[in-house]
């Protein structure tokens, strides 16, 4: 088993103190730590370093894997990757990780929504097409990852089902997740051992099963703590 500790939606500096408290109170002893997007607020790249400083102090030497959220703006991925080279950033990609003698594959896109927000429609042309095409692209990525014959952990920022969005306003469900991801998860349930996502700040349900695979919402405002996932 590989122990994964996970969090997201720190929106530093907004929830940085809550993240610090969550780390201090956590009993999770991670092989890998996952940051599932929206680590900073409004693309404040420097704030990412403050989050990492807290994380490394609490869990020195632990591999850190991250995906980008909507607050880590599109087009700035390379800047994050170059500034924080000790983080394994996934951007529609996957990586084999080795930690404490265990090996697993982490697959990481930002994720998709049922439909773009009005702001996204206005300011990010082409995003609706990306959301529409991502489930098929992710399925191909998972097929490639399965060739390693290692357990697979899928990490996205956006949700992958509506089943764990209870607590949110149902009117905004389409802007929090993509239900088309459910079919992708079920199709790859053989080696896909868990799914981690954030974005749903008010999601009252921590985990549900989709196609026999556990799906976790690790958004810090929703959980108030670090989430432990066994893969």
Automatic annotation (TrEMBL):
One Pfam family here: Metallophos
Span of domain Calcineurin-like phosphoesterase: 4-202
GO molecular function, one term: hydrolase activity
InterPro entries, per database record: Calcineurin-like_PHP, Metallo-depent_PP-like, Metallophosphoesterase_sf
Top-rank taxon: Archaea
PANTHER family: TRANSMEMBRANE PROTEIN WITH METALLOPHOSPHOESTERASE DOMAIN, TRANSMEMBRANE PROTEIN WITH METALLOPHOSPHOESTERASE DOMAIN-RELATED
Protein name per the record: Metallophosphoesterase
Native source species: Desulfurococcus mucosus (strain ATCC 35584 / DSM 2162 / JCM 9187 / O7/1)
